[in-house]
Design a protein that fits this description.
This protein is mainly β and 182 residues long. It has 2 helices and 13 strands, in the order ββββαβββββββββα. The mean pLDDT is 96.
C-alpha cells in the first residue's frame, strides 16, 4: 500500500494494492494489521454507505463532543472530497485539503477526529463508503458552511444540491469555540 501524507498533519491518502487482470480486480479495503503498520490504529465501530447523484454536496460535517475519525472510499463514481482542520491548537486550523476519490483511482482518505468533512459528487451517481471510529451522535453533529469565504474551497460544480441542514451550516468564524476541537 502506498501512503501519501498531506500538508495538514493527520490526513492520509492511501493507495491500496490492486490486483487485476482481464476478469476484473481484487483490492483489500481493510486489514487491521496492515493499517496498524502504517500508524492507523483506529478502532472502527460503524460503517456507512451513501448514494448520491451528480452535483449533490454533503457536508461539511463534524461531531463534537464524541468526534469521529473516518476512512473514506468511493465504490462507484467520483467525488471531490474535502477535510477542514477544526483543531484550535493546530498550526493548520481553518485550512482544508481536497482530492478526487473515485472507483477508478481506488484511493482511500483517512480523516482523523477534529476535522469537518464533506464531498461533492462529480459523476452521474456515486456510492460512497466510510468507516467511523465512533458512533453517530445527532445531538453532537455540526455543519460548517460549504461556501464559507474564509475557507475559499473551490468546489468543482456550481450550484450544488444541499440538504436543509447543510444549507444552514455556519461559517467558521461563527462556530462557538466550545464546538471546535482542542
Amino acid at each position: 500500500m502506498n501512503v501519501l501524507t498531506c500538508d495538514i498533519p493527520g490526513l492520509l491518502i492511501l493507495e491500496p494494492k490492486v490486483f487485476g487482470d482481464a476478469r476484473g480486480f481484487f483490492v483489500e479495503t481493510w486489514n487491521r494489521r496492515r493499517y496498524e503498520e502504517i500508524g492507523l490504529n483506529a478502532n472502527f465501530v460503524q460503517d456507512n454507505l451513501s448514494f448520491s447523484a451528480k452535483g449533490i454536496l454533503r457536508g461539511l460535517h463534524f461531531q463534537n463532543p464524541n468526534p469521529q475519525a473516518k476512512l473514506l472510499q468511493v465504490l462507484q463514481g467520483e467525488v471531490y472530497d474535502v477535510a477542514v482542520d477544526l483543531r484550535r491548537s493546530s498550526p493548520t486550523f481553518g485550512r482544508w485539503h481536497g482530492l478526487v476519490l473515485s472507483s477508478e483511482n481506488k484511493r482511500q482518505f483517512f480523516v482523523p477526529a477534529g476535522f469537518a468533512h464533506g464531498f461533492q459528487v462529480l459523476s452521474p451517481t456515486a456510492l460512497f463508503h466510510y468507516k467511523c471510529d465512533n458512533y453517530y451522535s445527532p445531538k453532537d453533529e455540526g455543519a460548517l458552511r460549504w461556501d464559507d469565504p474564509q475557507l475559499g474551497i473551490p468546489w468543482p460544480l456550481p450550484s450544488p444540491v444541499l440538504s436543509e441542514k447543510d444549507a444552514k451550516g455556519l461559517p467558521l468564524a461563527q462556530i462557538p469555540e466550545s464546538r471546535l476541537f482542542p
